[in-house]
Amino acid sequence: MFTGIIEEVGTIRAVRRGARSVVLTIGASRILGGVKLGDSIAVNGVCLTVTSFTASEFTADVMRETISRSSLGNVNSGSEVNLERAMPADGRFGGHIVAGHIDGTGVIRAIQRDDNAILFSIRTTPELLRYIVEKGSVAIDGISLTVTRVSDSDFGVSIIPHTAGNTTLVKRKIGDTVNIENDCVGKYIEKFMNFGKTADSLLV
Fold first, then answer.
1. Is the four-CA dihedral 14, 15, 18, 21 of positive or negative sign?
2. What's the rounded Cα separation, in Å, for the pair 80 and 12?
């Protein structure tokens, strides 16, 4: 489990592509303190498992399912990524519940400065928008953010100077693809409410 509070911006040092998978080598420093093989680290919001590490980098496998649902298949050597270690049992819960399981992607359609904040408009699919609510939480590239508005084709988030200075989001451009993880609470409620219903009854 993660909180969406980014600890460090790392750099992709190597990308080894297989037929249907990718092995990433990621340079980092702060998050490697106390790291062990098998630990979970969120990379742009995607929960990955540490398969090897040194004092300055770690490697992780990215499987086909993750490539198809996220933007990790498009990263290259030199790309910067948001990093967060799994939350310790005695840690502070500063963001919201983030599983590191990406629901899909969105595309930045507008960026606008608003005094000390930066407003992002992100276009995504109706399947993802159904779980996004105004003033609710959403994780964008692993960053816990508050939704400022929602329409039938996109939604907005606002980032403060601290987030801008400690994540990769401020370096994104219009047209860039970002990873989206919906707040899991809505998905569970929908599942419980519809448990046992047939497909035909859900259309009524």
1. positive
2. 6
Instruction: Tally Cβ neighbours within 10 Å of residue 59.
Output: 18
Rg of the chain over CA atoms, in angstroms?
17
The contacts of residue 193 (CB under 8 Å, 6+ apart) are none
Q: What pLDDT, on a 0 to 100 scale, did the predictor assign at position 195?
A: 83
* Per-domain boundaries in the chain: 8-85, 104-191
* Start-to-end Cα distance in the chain: 36
Query: Which CATH number describes the domain made up of 104-191?
Result: 2.40.30.20
Written out in words, the top-level CATH class of the domain with range 8-85 is: mainly beta
Q: pLDDT of 45-91, one tens digit each?
A: 999 999 999 999 999 999 999 999 999 989 999 999 999 999 887 77
Buried b (16+ CB within 10 A) or exposed e, 149-186: ebeeebbbbbbeeebeebbbbeebeeebebbbbbbbee
**Which DSSP state fits 64?**
H
Would the CA dihedral through 95, 99, 100, 102 be positive or negative? negative
Q: Pull the structure tokens for residue 174.
A: 């219009």
SS3 19: coil
Rounded to an integer, what distance in angstroms lies between the CA atom of residue 193 and that of residue 56? Answer: 47
Which residue(s) pair with 83 in the sheet? 8, 43
Question: What does the alpha-carbon distance between residue 118 and residue 141 come to, in Å, rounded to a whole number?
Answer: 16
Task: Give the SS3 label for residue 147.
Answer: strand
